[in-house]
Amino acid sequence: MAGLDLSAIVGVVTDLVLLDTVRISRPGTGDPVFDQQTGQYAYPEAETVYEGIGAVQPAGTAAEVVSVPTPNLPWVAETRSKYRLLTPLSAPVAEKDWLVTVVQVHQPGGDLGLLNRQWRVQDPGGAGTLAVVRTTAIDQVQQTREVS
């Protein structure tokens, strides 16, 4: 028995949803190095794993931002902002803690607020028997560092 063929839908979804250019990067490894000229620490450069079409969408309502105190810490942990990264199935499966940025938004009508933000992958990118795009859970990074 043949399965359901969703390949015809891929083009439609790509044309209607995957409108922006996203970059998925593997963070550089190693400790930051002190830069004598700037007087600041510089992190190792990130490695770009994918740069191409995609979309970043909220995974719920704005009221679903969660901030829960950690039992052993005297402060409230960073908030969790639920977002989804949508990429073609041909894009690599993002791994936990990789970084996502939107490097270009579609015009007209693209949300320029997506630029200069960074998200961290929460879990490896999703995979499923019947998929049209890859969905990856991401969390907005509240304190960013510059990533090339």
Structure characterization notes:
This protein has 148 residues and is mostly beta strands. The model has no long low-confidence stretch (mean pLDDT 83). A hairpin with a 4-residue loop joins strand 2 (33-35) and strand 3. It has one helix spanning 7-16, and strands spanning 20-26, 33-35, 40-42, 47-58, 82-87, 99-104, 119-121, 134-140. Helices cover 7% and strands 32% of the residues. The protein contains one helix and eight strands.
**How many helices does DSSP assign?**
1
Profile the largest sheet: 6 strands, antiparallel, barrel
Strand composition percent: 25-35%
Into which percent range does the helicity of residues fall?
under 10%
Spatial ordering of strands, largest sheet: 1-4-5-8-7-6
Oligomer: single chain
Report the mean per-residue pLDDT as an integer. 83
Shape: globular
Structural class, by secondary structure, is: mainly beta
Gyration radius (Cα, Å) is 18 Å
Give the low-confidence spans: none
Total beta-strand segments = 8
| Termini Cα gap | 48 Å
Order of helical and strand elements: HEEEEEEEE
